[in-house]
Design a protein that fits this description.
By secondary structure, the protein is an alpha+beta fold. It has helices spanning 18-33, 62-70, 72-81, and strands at residues 5-12, 38-46, 49-59, 91-95. Strand 2 (38-46) and strand 3 form a beta hairpin. Helix 1 packs antiparallel against helix 3. The chain is globular.
């Protein structure tokens, strides 16, 4: 049995872009949560730094995550992110759950 894919995506909004990014992440969350292999997709802002967004993500397995990356809504979001985020993208950190 393949293991669940768990990660955190971090996005730092360019100044003045944080409200637009929050709207786009909220819309993206609705679409991602309907993907067959998605277990959890939870975007949030960092309380002490409103330009920083973190998204806790879980997928059924690596294949489900690969499908997520190829989904039209993800591709569209990432193409818009180029204009809204530092470095034009999110930074992904894979996690290994302890339990």
């Amino acid at each position: 049995m393949s293991e669940r894919k768990v990660l955190v995506a971090e996005i730092v909004a360019l100044p003045g872009c944080e409200d637009r990014l929050a709207v786009l992440l909220t819309e993206l969350a609705e679409r991602v949560r309907s993907e067959a292999g998605n277990v959890l997709f939870e975007p949030a802002t960092v309380e002490r730094d409103p330009l920083r967004f973190l998204v806790y993500e879980q997928y059924r397995d690596e294949d489900a995550f690969t499908s997520h990356l190829a989904a039209a809504h993800t591709v569209e979001f990432n193409s818009i992110l180029v204009t809204l985020a530092e470095n034009g993208r999110s930074e992904l950190t894979g996690l290994s759950p302890l339990a």
